[in-house]
User: Which sequence fits this backbone?
């Protein structure tokens, strides 16, 4: 069975905030966090001003993320990595993209109506990156992330 994007995000979701921030930078941007971003995001989450799910969406909306995935090559991405899976997802179009978005983020098959609705969003100008962010930020995605209820210490 192949891992899906949501499963990789879930694997870090309940780790302590500093480790979570580190993991998300690595998963989505293929790099360590810079000290400013690391401290800022960690502090915002620790103070309750930013949820972990909102942090993931902030990274997805960042200029760095956008630039990374507009490149037409996976040369700098590890095979099977989260970033390579996102890159492959974003290469799809139309109905294939909509269906795979449900599989990768919501871990389920979409209904015909759901595919039609999201195809309309794409046709009306919503970008694939924006749609990815909407899916990751959705209530359904939050429930999936919350299902990973074990703490980092319990995995040791």
Assistant:
């Amino acid at each position: 069975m192949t891992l899906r994007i949501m499963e990789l995000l879930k694997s870090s979701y309940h780790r302590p905030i500093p480790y979570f921030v580190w993991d998300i930078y690595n998963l989505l941007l293929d790099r360590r966090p810079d000290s400013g971003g690391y401290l800022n995001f960690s502090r915002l989450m620790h103070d309750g001003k930013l949820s972990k799910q909102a942090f993931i969406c902030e990274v997805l909306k960042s200029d760095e993320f956008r630039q990374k995935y507009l490149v037409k090559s996976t040369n700098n991405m590890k095979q099977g990595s989260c970033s390579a899976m996102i890159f492959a997802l974003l290469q799809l179009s139309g109905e294939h993209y909509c269906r795979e978005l449900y599989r990768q983020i919501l871990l389920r098959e979409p209904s015909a109506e759901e595919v039609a609705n999201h195809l309309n969003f794409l046709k009306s100008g919503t970008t694939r990156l924006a749609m990815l962010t909407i899916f990751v930020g959705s209530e359904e995605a939050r429930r999936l992330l919350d299902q990973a209820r074990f703490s980092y210490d319990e995995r040791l």
